[in-house]
Design a protein that fits this description.
Length: 434
């Protein structure tokens, strides 16, 4: 009788979708800091087809297979289809662990679509402790920061996890050489009613120290050499080092930029105030732009305007004025920086008069060569606007944005977002009626 080869212990497969790999990098990086890293084989899979093909092979070789997924609300329906495909093909051979914006905002709903365990909120400490329990075949019902359906078919949330000290964890997995942007700040004091950030990470900003940031800048330099590009993840690119996130600490920000530039050298590049982190309009000043011009290599910045109606800005709790938007655009252009301005169409409480005011602002900015980045409003779980009915974008907006796009003054996936918002709105409505 030929004995079967012994199975390896655990595989952790990251669904490494291009829209979510920043958050998955934080998870993978955290797991590399613990000794359980030695007990787990990691796989990073970029597409759904590749994920299924990889699972077909992996489940044969390991005692346990973990599938790690992070997703936004805009990805809910496609993620549901993927999870159901995994459950149908592999039955109980996988453990699906989900985290990120949507699972944190709606953990129970995420479990209902087939996820086995939801990591709620900040995940670094939670995922390490959870994987320790799974590796050792121990119960995980007292691991803080998770939600699951227990053996009695009841929903169980274990409570909020501890606040994470960013300095204790890498922004990306160094051993697995999966590099990306460096998260420098977490949390946002501006409680905008359409945004999940303060509800996911709190309103008190926490910053990764310059010493630790530079440590990982050096890792990137070691890997990429002279052509090292540095991007930062932060709710507001100019707020680094600020105690409250509102009163800027430009001395600290400049220290970070100076030391980063020292490491990457003349051929390296820093991007500040652009993707993946925009800036608030009232924080665009001569001083902040001076830092962009002195240290950064981007020729543009992106600001969040969201509406041209002061009434709508106030109802969204934006804490800036329409005039702040005009001022930011004027200052950027005076300093020879191109500027992209985010607007959200279909915000709650928006009337026809508000739409006309926003259109006028967009027209004014376009005449100054600003580019409009158009978005459609999507209700996000846990935000004050979570249960607001989704509205179709008014023809006034559609006609204006099409005109601006045709002349090169606007861009964005607002039409796709509108379709997604309507589908998700209908889905959530049906789900809540069950």
């Amino acid at each position: 009788m030929i004995s079967k080869p012994s199975l390896k212990n655990i595989a952790f497969i990251f669904y490494y979708h291009r829209d979510n790999f920043y958050s998955l990098n934080a998870i993978a990086g955290a797991l590399e800091t613990d000794k359980i890293f030695e007990s787990i084989d990691f796989y990073f899979v970029p597409t759904q087809n590749k994920l299924i093909i990889t699972l077909e092979e992996v489940v044969k070789k390991y005692n346990k297979t973990i599938v790690g997924i992070s997703f936004y609300t805009t990805q809910l329906l496609e993620t549901q289809d993927l999870i159901q495909t995994i459950k149908r093909k592999f039955k109980n051979k996988t453990i699906i662990v989900a985290g990120g914006p949507h699972p944190t905002g709606d953990p129970f709903g995420t479990l209902r679509i087939g996820v086995d365990i939801v990591v709620v909120g900040e995940s670094e400490e939670t995922i390490i402790e959870l994987m320790q329990r799974i590796v050792n075949n121990e119960k995980f019902d007292d691991v803080k920061g998770i939600a699951y359906i227990n053996e009695n078919k009841k929903y169980n949330y274990t409570g909020k996890s501890n606040l994470v000290n960013l300095d204790e964890y890498p922004p990306f997995p160094v051993k697995s050489t999966r590099f990306g942007a460096i998260e420098i700040t977490r949390g946002c004091p501006y409680v905008c009613y359409f945004c999940q950030t303060p509800y996911l990470f709190g309103t008190k900003p926490s910053h990764r120290s310059i010493e630790i940031i530079c440590k990982y800048v050096q890792e990137l330099k070691n890997y990429y050499g002279d052509l090292t590009f540095i991007r930062f993840i932060t709710p507001n690119a100019f707020s680094y080092g600020s105690k409250d996130g509102k009163n800027l600490n430009l001395e600290k920000l400049e220290e970070l930029l100076f030391k980063t530039k020292e490491i990457i050298g003349k051929k390296g590049k820093i991007f500040l105030g652009t993707f993946p982190s925009e800036v608030r309009p009232e924080h665009v000043t001569t001083d902040t732009l001076d830092l962009v011009l002195k240290y950064a290599d981007n020729d543009n910045i992106t600001i969040g305007a969201q509406s041209g109606s002061q009434k709508v800005l106030d109802s969204c709790h934006r804490e800036h004025t329409v005039q702040d938007i005009y001022n930011a655009v004027a200052l950027a252009l005076e300093n020879n920086l191109k500027i992209n301005v985010d607007f959200i169409f279909g915000l709650p409480e928006e009337t026809e008069e508000d739409i006309k005011l926003t259109i006028q602002v967009m027209r004014d900015l376009a005449t100054k060569d600003a580019r409009i980045h158009a978005h459609s409003f999507i209700p996000l779980p846990q935000t004050p606007f979570a249960n607001v009915p989704v509205k179709r974008i008014q023809d006034l907006y559609k006609n204006e944005i099409k005109s601006l796009i045709s002349r090169g003054f606007a861009f964005g996936d607002w039409k796709k977002q509108e379709r997604i918002a309507i589908k998700i709105g209908n889905y959530m409505k049906k789900l809540n009626l069950k």
